[in-house]
Amino acid sequence: MSASNQAPHGLSASLGTWQLWGIAVGLVISGEYFGWSFGWASAGTLGFLVTTIMVAVMYGTFIFSFTELTASIPHAGGPFAYSYHAFGPTGGYLAGMATLIEFVFAPPAIALAIGAYLNVQYPALDPKLAAVGAYIVFMGLNIVGVTIAATFELFVTLLAIFELLVFMGVVAPGFSLANFTKGGWSGADSFSLAAIPGIFAAIPFAIWFFLAIEGVAMAAEEAKDPKRSIPIAYTGGILTLVVLAVGVMVFAGGVGDWTKLANINDPLPQAMKTMVGESSGWLHMLVWLGLFGLVASFHGIILGYSRQIYAQARSGYLPGWFGKIHPRFKTPHRAILGGGAVGIAAIFSDEWLSFGGQSLTANIVTMSVFGALLMYALSMAALFKLRAAEPRLARPYKAPFYPVFPAIALAGALICLGTVAWFNPLLAGLFVLILLVGYGYFQLTHKQREALPFAGLAEAEG
């Protein structure tokens, strides 16, 4: 491999703009297939539409602001590197651990949905075993090489978008505004103050529509021209996802009794079933092609968590064993396998733990959201700090409407974090416990970090 194609510390710099856009949309697109409908249980269709619009505003302002950091500091650690640069080792630890929680807990939720979709076709197949099988297949594909992985990601993302458009087209003739609005305000037909708690309780599931788009930052060291291509990928990605999220939610809620979709892992096949029946070829096509949407996110987030683990390990924040690159494939194979082991354990965690009466998938989604929101807040705080402390830092892309956009994103992240913690106190306690245990490791290993510079940061900035 030529020097021009070799990123710092051995990662292969080979990704183009379209592949990065495929990663941006693919990381998230499973959120259009499942997870979001749990928000209907508390908010109703209209209430959840309000929640989604609020969250979309937060994500839009966040992505336009976050892109400044990604273009300025293209580093595999993403938010971990930005907070380290702004706030030092402790800031790096907090952002890194939050990102790890987001990206390690999201894949098992998606894997369970893959199992649920396959169970529609093969009722005898245990969804959890199918989920484990998905881990084995896609960890292997990620290990083989980043170019192969990203090309595959682009392919399945395009198929997933096509399938969502097909879904909307098939169910559109049966859409009824009366169906969508019936009981739409937390079970009531008209808005009242009683609907507000449900609107806020549904925040984690609106976030699921967009969760993990920021993972493109973790492919920055593997992009050919990150300072140009990543802003394009982010902008195109968030616009694509907003359109798809609103379209899917509105059409699914208007074809029948939406309450039957509010606590299941496969709302789209079940919504289509009311239109075309159980034996329709359309339904079977949705199940099979719908898997591409889940696979796109699952596969992309494996790429994201592995780069986060790798970046932290090579800088002394995690055991150095995870910071090694495969000599042939130039991928962080140990980090891929380590994150997968945690995810597989989470798939079976409901056999030992149960929280708040929610389903296993809902709990895993909420835990991932805790990590995301803390990371978003720290990233926006880092943007403000670096603007003030390092005005001469090269910024190929600058956040539009600064400081308004990052301020909206920061306030939105903090409000959402407080709200999710209020409605999920047990999971909030578990989240804090994980942070504290990690901080204990962080304190015990300070000597190894002193002997090891923050790997890749100088090169990434250059």
Describe this structure in words.
With about 450 residues, the protein is mainly alpha-helical. It has helices spanning about 15-30, 40-70, 80-120, 125-145, 145-170, 175-180, 195-200, 205, 225-255, 265-275, 280-315, 335-345, 360-390, 405-425, 425-445, 445-450, 455-460.
Quick recap:
By secondary structure, this protein is mainly α. It is built from 17 helices and no strands.
What is the ordering of alpha helices and beta strands? HHHHHHHHHHHHHHHHH
Rg from C-alpha positions? 21 Å
Apparent shape:
globular
Q: Could you name the ranges where pLDDT drops below 50 across 5 or more consecutive residues?
A: 1-9, 456-462
Number of alpha- plus pi-helical segments: 17
Mean pLDDT: 84
How many individual β-strands?
A: 0
Quote the distance from N terminus to C terminus: 21 Å
Q: What is the strand content?
A: under 5%
Question: What is the helix content?
Answer: 55-70%
Q: Largest sheet, described in full?
A: none
Structural class: mainly alpha
Annotate the secondary structure layout.
Blueprint: H1 17-28, H2 40-72, H3 79-121, H4 127-144, H5 146-171, H6 177-181, H7 196-201, H8 203-207, H9 226-253, H10 267-276, H11 281-314, H12 333-347, H13 360-389, H14 404-423, H15 425-444, H16 446-450, H17 457-461
Helix pairs in contact: 1-5, 1-9, 1-11, 2-9, 2-13, 2-14, 3-4, 3-11, 3-12, 3-13, 3-15, 4-11, 4-12, 5-9, 5-11, 10-11, 11-12, 13-14, 14-15
